[in-house]
Amino acid sequence: MCQNGIDFRGLELAVKQLSERESSLRKEIEAWADYFLEMGAADIAAGLSGAVADLVKAGEKIAKAKHQLEHLHHHAHEHDHDHHHVTVTEFSG
Question: Whole-prediction pTM value?
């Protein structure tokens, strides 16, 4: 749906894809961290575990962006605003 020049469906799809990629990458890194731990490379496993923690934080920010986007979509649709523009600050964490 396009409202006020904003393709909410496209933005929602992009955020959904980011979320899926974050989740997939997190699972893959967790598996590698486990493997390195089993192989006795605890330092590498710890580094990868840190990357997983960073991805968890990124996932939280992606979820927040999704929520903000849904709110903007609902708000624009509900009030039929003609001048609401999505800005970068609205999606910053």
Answer: 0.64
